[in-house]
Amino acid sequence: MLLIMKYSFLRLIREFDNYFWCGAFPLILATLFSLSFGSYLTTADYEPVQAGIVIENEKNGFVEVIDNLNGEYLDVKEINIKEAKDQLSSGNISGYYVVSDNIALKVADTRLNASILSEVVSEYNKNEVLMEKTIREHPENMEKTIDAIMNFNTKVNDVSLAGKIINVNNQFFYALIAMACLYGNFLGLHAMVNIQANLSPLGARRAITPTHKMKVIFSEFFVNVGVHMVNLMVLLVYLKILGVVLDGKVSLMILICVIGVINGVSLGMLIGSISRKSLNFKTGIALAISMSASFLAGLMFAGMKGIVQTHAPIVNMINPAALISDAFYSLTVFDSIGRYSTDLLILCVESLIMLAISFMIVRRARYVSI
């Protein structure tokens, strides 16, 4: 069996077409994520929003509110109306306030920074109404109301049950790792094609040898899992270089990758064994399945997994990409490994079922002539 594994390994490292999907593509996608989303994907801290303020009424209490928020949340500078318009049009600021008897806000678009600036005005107006109502109906509570307003902290962080700050954008990278694991199906697919006599010359030569097919299948399986694990380790190291923070014990994260790779290779072996179609056709099927699973796990749209959980929770329970990303997520959210263990158990059961089906199909194959 060791000799079979040796030659399987030598054959595998010469198949350069597998390197792109299994090794290079996840690295390219990780780079594009980093370039496209920048620090918003790798850190939970955001830069203060750049804005301007035009003061026409210095007695307005809104000016004091802005002074209190300046530095941590906002970077607001006092400018005149002409400078405000010029800087807004040039993109140097996200918006500007005009403070007179009322508060006016001018923004260039409706993106996140504009929403933050608008929320400041909305919160101020609510507090102003509350103050007027307190003065009118319960003046004795005026001091308590002022203290409550001044001490209210508007900053909200996503915190896990384990008490750690969560970067919700990491869900993209969890789904990316899941996709990389599933791309092991290309290796498993090629391995199965090279076992069957009616699909490849190598398979024909193997069919006339006395070697038991189970030895051949498991030799291919172990070699492919080992090679693809190297790809996953390279991806994890590269994410670390990009500055992506993956919370959790390293040993537990590596275990996710091992079981995820096993699932991906098993899926490829199943696809390779159930049809006599060409290699190109089966490769298309493998790509469609892995990309669909990754999409449903949130690779293209972070909220997709939540939508699936709401309308079709059974899909998340059997989707290997969703299970892999959920296992990473559970390491961040939960102190216990109950949910983590459940995800990995389901992945293991799926892998065993796919391997068993693949073996039974190939074992029963008979050829009139080779």
SSE run? HHHEHEHEEHHHHHHHHHHHH
- Estimate the strand proportion: 5-15%
User: Regions with pLDDT < 50 over 5+ consecutive residues?
Assistant: 152-158
Number of folding domains?
A: 2
Largest sheet, order of strands side by side? Answer: 2-1-3-4
**What's the story with the biggest beta sheet?**
4 strands, mixed
Summarize the structure.
With 370 residues, the protein is mainly alpha-helical. Helices cover 66% and strands 6% of the residues.
List the helices and strands and how they pair.
Blueprint: H1 2-12, H2 17-37, H3 39-42, E1 49-55, H4 62-69, E2 74-78, H5 81-90, E3 95-99, E4 103-107, H6 112-137, H7 142-150, H8 170-182, H9 185-193, H10 201-207, H11 213-242, H12 250-273, H13 279-296, H14 304-311, H15 313-318, H16 320-333, H17 338-363
Parallel strand pairs: 1-2, 1-3
Antiparallel strand pairs: 3-4
Helix pairs in contact: 1-11, 2-8, 2-11, 6-7, 8-11, 8-12, 8-13, 8-16, 9-11, 9-12, 9-13, 11-12, 12-13, 12-16, 12-17, 16-17
Please tell me about this protein's structure.
With 370 residues, this protein is mainly alpha-helical. It folds into two domains: 2-40 and 162-363, no CATH class; 49-150, D-Maltodextrin-Binding Protein, domain 2 (3-Layer(aba) Sandwich), CATH 3.40.190. The protein is 66% helix and 6% strand. The protein has 17 helices and four strands. The protein has helices spanning 2-12, 17-37, 39-42, 62-69, 81-90, 112-137, 142-150, 170-182, 185-193, 201-207, 213-242, 250-273, 279-296, 304-311, 313-318, 320-333, 338-363, and strands at 49-55, 74-78, 95-99, 103-107. Strands 2-1-3-4 form a four-stranded mixed β-sheet, with helices on both faces. The longest helix is centred in the middle third of the chain and has 30 residues, at 213-242. The model is unreliable at 152-158 (pLDDT under 50).
